[in-house]
Write a structure and sequence with these properties.
Distance between the termini: 43 Å
Radius of gyration: 19 Å
Oligomer: single chain
Largest sheet: 8 strands, antiparallel, barrel
């Protein structure tokens, strides 16, 4: 099967970003490397699609688990990556037909962390998002993916030196061309999670 040009460009953009972030991480050496911290956050929330047709079939919001990894590279600057997924059943009233969709969202970018108080920390993040989907409806399987952007804000409350709880919010946007035309991918996500520092 021949890969679509848009898909090739998506993976090329993601690969270039990974290379740039790796280079940035390696070059940010100095006194602060000793204080580098890795963080893994496991959370879940509600996802509201930017696509009105999606919301009419699958509901106004969908449960979405997510895993995020962040690494401080210099001062409050961090590189981060996240993976979220959706599996949802829907219903098309016009034809009395059940549907099912799976979506994955892979994001990667730069972030900045600002300490607000001893236990509180604010994180702002900006990066690329690769969103793919597989939908089964009307005895047809439709697949697609698109590259776009993701912006988010997290508020962390530190429990101890190794754990924290977090409130998250983000918005992603991408699109893809299918037989029926252009479709919007991405949307608003709000959730909470538990983080581990190591």
């Amino acid at each position: 099967m021949k890969m679509k040009p848009a898909t090739k460009n998506s993976f090329r953009s993601m690969f270039l970003l990974v290379c740039l972030l790796t280079f940035f991480s390696v070059c940010c050496l100095g006194e602060e490397t000793a204080t580098r911290r890795n963080m893994v956050t496991v959370g879940a929330g509600l996802f509201r699609s930017a696509n009105a047709d999606y919301r009419s079939v699958y509901g106004q919001s969908t449960f979405m688990p997510e895993i995020k990894i962040s690494r401080l590279v210099y001062g409050g600057i961090a590189i981060w990556g996240s993976f979220g997924w959706i599996a949802n059943n829907g219903f098309i009233e016009e034809v009395d037909e059940k549907t099912h969709i799976r979506q994955t969202m892979l994001s990667l970018g730069l972030g900045f962390m600002q300490k607000l108080s001893a236990p509180l920390r604010l994180r702002g993040e900006l990066g690329l998002a690769h969103i793919s989907f597989k939908e089964e409806a009307l005895d047809v399987i439709q697949k697609g993916s698109g590259m776009g952007w993701n912006i988010g804000i997290d508020l962390d409350y530190r429990i101890n030196n190794k754990m924290f709880v977090t409130l998250t919010s983000s918005y992603s946007q991408a699109s893809d061309e299918v037989e029926a035309g252009k479709i919007e991918l991405g949307g608003l996500q709000i959730g909470a999670g538990l983080g581990f520092i190591f």
